[in-house]
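Lab meeting prep.
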Amino acid sequence: MEVKYLSIYNDIMDSIENKIIKPGEKLPSENELMQKYDVSRDTVRKALDLLEGNGYIHKIKGKGSFVLDIAKLDFPITGIITFKELSEKMGVSSKTIVHELDLIKPDKFLVKKLELSKEDLIWRVIRAREIDDKRIILDKDYFNNRYVPSLTKKVCESSIYEYLERDLGLTIGFAKKEITVQQVSNEDKEYLDLEDYNMVVVVKSYTYLDDMSLFQYTESRHRPDKFRFIDFARRK
């Protein structure tokens, strides 16, 4: 005999996966679920906790439980893939909004991150990435001007890597990445459609050309419900 909270979990999970309950919809209250399934509050809470733990709902204190979009985008950790390539691969409508494009003198933070000299200049590019009319990624890119002598808004709205490889003839080699979860910043609030999320997943990348020249530092800030970060590992 199936445990009661698992029965409730499976019933709600099936409704979410079959789009009977749609992303963004609010689930019935705990009291309503208790009446519907004729169970205790503790049983209902166990089912809701399991749904939240497995990524089906997001519980907001004082407001209730809301269904998440389970059709997350697979974002490879070890690969180097552009937003344009990712959205085309997933077959979703997308748009890049360029908020800032400047050639600037780097501060101490960026001098250290990009291993720069005092004479170097960098391109600062701040872009919001929109998928299905929701701004869910904020990319903050910094390029060493020695390797990227020019950038335009049109290039930044399309694909910078495509421009670097096709027009400038650069060969992008590899990247080191660091993934953390951070409290949302004022910049995140301004440029992203965060809804009720107060945390973002931040991927910091150091990207090198094939000759081992460090040419780019990026902070890519993701709304946590829209991406699944994946990797492939083999024991040697």
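Slide two material, second protein:
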Amino acid sequence: MDRIDDLEAFLAIVDEGSLTAAGRRLGRSLQAISRSLATLERGIGVELVQRTTRLSQPTEAGRAFYHRIKPVLQELNEARLEAATRRSETSGVLRIGASVLFGPAYLVPVIARFMERHPQIRVELELSDRFVDLTDEGLDLAVRIGHLPDSSLKARRLGELRRVFFGSPEYFDKHGRPEHPQDLWRHQCVVRSTDRQDDAWPVLIDGKSGTVRVNGRFRADDAASTYAAVAQGLGIGFTPLWQIRDLVDRGVLELVLVPFEPPTVPIHAVWHGSKLTPAKTRMFIDSLARELECDRL
């Protein structure tokens, strides 16, 4: 395999446009740069750079080789830097963002176990239901629920979350259970009034996504109130399963219309798109992926 310094010399020649400038960038002599290029070309068996008195330009083969090896060499250098800094970066403050309900219930247990394994790391958890800017808020990473907009952030998919229809046993005893999404129109529905589309619930019918219109006598602008209202028998609700999992497990609420649940919603860890990710951030993301088990939520 060609030596790394020969590859670095070739990249510097193409970037700088001359052997002399490449030598200055790498802190090597002109003779050393020239030897590296000659060794590389001899090993590959093709001319990579056309030399003139003042300029050095890549050949067609050289340009293709440049574009193939540049990202590989960058990754290799970053890997070496990560390995060298891994020990020092497993300390300090890790600032994490998450949604108001999800953070306490599902992230805090993972954080507690992570802090026990890494006693030199301190964690600050910032909760918001907005997709906040990581840089503006000073966050190292955030856990986001929903489809991600295009951005410069890196992301790792942690799993998927179900969205479900639910009601109380008392309500179903009095009013019956809906067998099809269209039946919801004849039922009282408890709506969370957060936007103009709050009365259009997503469904999946015959493999196709759609919506059904719902109506009811009770509305609230926060999730906890809607869950309490459904538990009191005021109607049928719709929400991510993880938010009512404990109530379902205890029999306070029951799921309906399971075959018609809309597509699952992805959950991701997102962090800064810089090439080098601090070890503390990378290690916590690994812990999330291993311990969160979002396929059950």
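Talking points for slide two:
The radius of gyration is 28 Å.
The mean pLDDT is 89.
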